[in-house]
Amino acid sequence: SELCDELDYTKICEKYLRKWRKHSPKTLFKIIVYGYMRKLFSSRAIEEACNRDICFMWLLNDEPTPDHSTITRFMDDKLSSEIEDLFYQLINKLYELGEIRFENLFVDGTKIEANANRYTFVWANAVKKNAEKLYQKIELFMEVLNDRYMIKLSSPEEYLSFLGNRIMYLNTVFVSGKGKRKTQIQRDFEQLEEYLERKNKYKEYFAILDGRKSFSKTDTDATFMRMKEDHMLNGQLKPGYNVQIGVESEYIVGIGLFPKPTDVTTLIPFLERVKKGYGKTIPNIIADAGYESEENYVYLEENNQTPYIKPQNYELSKTRKYRNDEFRVEKMEYNKDGNCYTCKNGQTLKYIYTQTTKSTNGYEIKKDVYRNESCAGCPYRYKCHKSKNDYRTVKVSQRFAEKRENSRNNILSDIGILLRMNRSIQVEGAFGVIKEDYGFRRFLMRGKKKTETQFFLLSFAYNIQKYHNRINVNRVGMDLFKKEIA
Description:
By secondary structure, the protein is α+β, with helices and mostly antiparallel strands. About 45% of the residues lie in helices and about 15% in strands. It contains 18 helices and 13 strands. It has helices spanning about 1-5, 10-15, 25-35, 45-50, 55-60, 70-80, 85-95, 125-150, 155-170, 185-210, 265-280, 295-300, 315, 320-325, 380-385, 400-410, 415-435, 450-470; strands spanning about 105-115, 120-125, 215, 225, 235-250, 250-260, 285, 305-310, 335, 340, 350-360, 365-370, 395. The strands form three sheets. Strands 1, 4, 5, 6, 7 and 8 form a six-stranded mixed β-sheet that branches. Strands 9-10-11-12-13 form a five-stranded antiparallel β-sheet. The chain has a two-stranded antiparallel sheet with strand order 2-3. Helix 3 (about 25-35) crosses helix 18, helix 8 (about 125-150) runs antiparallel to helix 10 (about 185-210) and helix 9 (about 155-170) packs antiparallel against helix 10 (about 185-210).
């Protein structure tokens, strides 16, 4: 109650100008947050607690018990646009209390199921294939109409208008039902109308997909993802959101919901949102191998942030097989002046050209392609590569290799080892509390805006509970767990 009282509710109060309102926005916000601390996520459960629980009655401060519809309207209409600001106010308050330093940001993500039917899926590939078939049918049908009505129009919409005017001119009566025979123009009109209806439906689907591979009809913002919690135990995809959080000193300080299942494309927009929320950049970014990419490394360097990202080949590089493999491009001798590699057999792989590709966010990735003249007669031919071509081709991004090596050195340093240990404790521990202790495994609301509001409330409640727990165990002001040595 004390932490919530110190927040600024001016923006929410501006929406509550009518004097006849019985509930203040501060009180409503308090009981919702406390409800989330008590694992009460539905408005009906919070309403019932206000009638029975003395703690909720104390928070109401002699105000009448709000019904579930009042709580829901407050969350949807008033709180959804201001919850992020209130969340950042709480984090800044914890910063003033010395709990947060804005030095280390531990980033991780998890997938939480959306409040959507698991079988109302729309797949992008299926929509694309069906749309192409439909366009072919429309073109063939328009050729038939050209011959039948001795007129040539450029689009099916023009044909539909032409047929409609012709039907009105001829006073054609549409018939339906058993024993009724439709005229040819009625059949043509209805067929074309059906095609255009399907065409508009596919057009709407493409707009909703917006680069995604799928969506759910009951929550169009949700994407089908593979999750650990599988109700059918067969690896089935379920509609959900990729929830990204940033943790420091055990507190959740950043939140983002994304419609794509992979983590690598979420890091930059997530950090931009955190930067915008606090007006400052956090110098150390700690993440697992799922966030490694050249684009992310370059972004962190440009923003003067140090990456502690585990390379994707880190675990593999520690194996004996990897260390003894002399044919990997990493083990080849590189001549920087001649821009070429030398393989174990002494052959030179010369620079051929630079291959340019673009990431999902539009970042250009440039890889240099190297190739030798021939592998004929080489004693290491089948150990070196399994290509059908009689020459070896390698693709290398020198920029990415350099930044990967820097990140590897960072995580192997003393501070890097400590931060990696804390990443697994703090950010994965936060998800453990939310999903296991709180039992929050499925959103109760639909749409990205509402689900994001719910997760902000959950994180707000988590942070207050964490602060209370740290006071009880005398861990106030400790930002990192120290490595214990036997």
